[in-house]
Amino acid sequence: MKITEVVCQILRIENVQAKTASSQDSVLVRIRTDNGLEGVGEADSSPEMVKAAIDAPFSHNIASGLRALLIGENPIETDRLWDKMYRATMYCGRRSVMITAMAAIDMALWDLKGKHFGEPIYRLLGGRRVDRIRAYASILFGGDGTETAEIGRRWIEAGYTAVKFGWEPMGESEAVDLDLVGGAREGIGDATLLIDAGCVWDARTALRRAHAFADFGIEWLEEPLQPDDYEGYRWLRDRSPVPIASGEEECGRQSFRPLIDLRALDVYQVDLSRNGFTESAYIRQRVEEIGARLCNHCYTSPITVAASLHWLCTCRDAFLFEDCVEDSPLRHELTTARVQAVDGWIEPPSGPGLGVEINEDFVQSTLVSQSD
Question: Does 355 map to a domain?
Answer without folding.
Answer: no
